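In the design runs reported in the main text, the only information available to the sequence generator was the tokenized backbone. The following block is the verbatim input for one such run; it is reproduced so that readers can re-run the procedure and compare outputs position by position.
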């Protein structure tokens, strides 16, 4: 009599985890601050390797994997036209930049793919990671359709406490993107606070709390984290590792390498005042 129940449970679990291949209670919704980038400490920390989770999605099986070098991790925020805000990239410019990456043979990967990189196994040629911080609504309405059309994957670092805000993603939108296989969801704390100014308990609540809230909603492990405004210190990195994140990114400029520490990886900010032509020269 117990066998049908066990079979049903197995099928249900398989269904819930089907969308996880791309790779607590949620705090009250609050409006995010205007996008801003602040200076971060110069310390570089190293994280211990985390165990591998699963295989690559089937659709990537035919891509040759021969690359062992550093990886550019692009940093976007809002995809919106506002010449006065350099953290906002216009929709036309963003689409031109993504089209350039597609046309020149870049392979957009996720942090799930970096599990190979972490273990010293090769990546596809010309790998690149496209990331968005905060979880703005236009990541769904503008960026997602472009990425889906071009077949480019990306990671959105969501501030869990901002979900559902006027200019922010809803949980339904987050789930839809994650289940599409195009978007990987990462965490960006609960409230977007400066983690270096918080107590150990507060750090844990912000870092671990965001991971738990997002995982409860999407039903998949969240393995990547972004420090708000790029601010971190030894204690913050320690709590990030303790929370179970495999990777974390900063705002330090440059290509990402394992030697930087898997929880303090560099990124390349794509400014809103940069033309698509300039972007193309930077990523030939």
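Verbatim output:
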């Amino acid at each position: 009599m117990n066998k049908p129940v066990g079979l049903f449970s197995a099928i249900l679990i398989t269904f819930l985890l089907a969308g996880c291949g791309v790779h607590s209670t949620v705090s009250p919704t609050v409006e995010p601050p205007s996008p801003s980038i602040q200076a971060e400490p110069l310390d570089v920390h190293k994280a211990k390797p985390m165990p591998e989770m699963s295989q690559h999605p089937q659709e990537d099986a035919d891509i040759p994997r021969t690359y062992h070098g550093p990886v550019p991790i692009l940093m976007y925020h809002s995809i919106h036209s506002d010449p006065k805000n350099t953290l906002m990239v216009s929709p036309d410019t963003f689409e031109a930049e993504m089209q350039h990456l597609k046309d020149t043979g870049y392979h957009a990967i996720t942090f799930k793919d970096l599990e190979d990189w972490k273990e010293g196994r090769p990546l596809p040629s010309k790998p690149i990671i496209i990331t968005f911080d905060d979880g703005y609504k236009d990541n769904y309405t503008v960026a997602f359709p472009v990425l889906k059309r071009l077949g480019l994957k990306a990671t959105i670092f969501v501030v869990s406490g901002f979900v559902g805000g006027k200019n922010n993603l809803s949980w339904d939108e987050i789930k839809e993107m994650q289940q599409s296989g195009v978007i990987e969801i990462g965490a960006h704390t609960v409230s977007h606070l400066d983690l270096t100014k918080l107590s150990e308990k507060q750090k844990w609540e912000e870092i671990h709390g965001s991971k738990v809230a997002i995982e409860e909603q999407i039903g998949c492990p969240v393995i990547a984290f972004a420090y708000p405004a790029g601010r971190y210190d030894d204690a913050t990195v320690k709590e990030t590792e303790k929370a179970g994140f495999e990777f974390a990114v900063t705002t330090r400029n440059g290509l990402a390498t394992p030697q930087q520490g898997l929880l303090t990886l560099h990124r390349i900010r794509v400014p809103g005042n940069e033309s698509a032509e300039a972007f193309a020269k930077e990523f030939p």
